[in-house]
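Submission sheet (multi-component)
Chains listed below:
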Amino acid sequence: MGCFHSKVKKKLRGHEDPVVLASQTAFSVSEVEALFELFKSISSSVIDDGLISKEEFQLALFKNRKKENLFANRIFDLFDVKQKGLIDFGDFVRGLHVFHPNAPQEEKMNFSFKLYDLDGTGFIERQEVKQMLIALLCESEMKLADETIESILDKTFVEADTNQDGKIDKSEWQIFVGRNPSLLKIMTLPYLRDITTTFPSFVFHSEVDEVAT
Amino acid sequence: TCLNAFDIISLSPGFDLSSLFEKD
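Outcome: structure written.
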């Protein structure tokens, strides 16, 4: 048992306690441990340092190291709450928590607002939305005339920017999302319900089992 | 052009974290 014990301790050494992370999120302790299996695999894909770099995050998302993606970068930056340029295990679990089907809608709404508020001013500005639209069109190799893009922006801001000041604030976003619930679809990952079956090997590294024995 | 800008933006694969869970 001594050998197994030291191996288990090594696996989570330096990372936040799964029991504490479970208490802060929609995940059970077993699910946090299963997420550690995923975290290990992503964080060791380029440099095995127990942290996820932007390059490793992108590699896990796109299976290649192609050019930077604005949207993947936004998610990475929001997971990286301490702005270290790296995601630790706690950041990873708390970030994914927002995407759990059971996470509160308000957390999903706040996260999505930050996602689109590129410069972090507390407002989603028309210029930011245009920048994201152009980035999306570029990455999907679609072309739209500038007047078509402006027309899409006009329509969106007529609906969302109710006080017509040219930017969307948090309360306007809340109302807009309420009318367009599909906007929060990207904020829910059904996979997170089945994380323990996707990564069953967590059982062999379980801290909880270790405590029980 | 009756599309909503955010619905279009959300189509980016960069926002689709489900690929994190796909094993090679």
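Remark: The mean pLDDT of chain B is 84.
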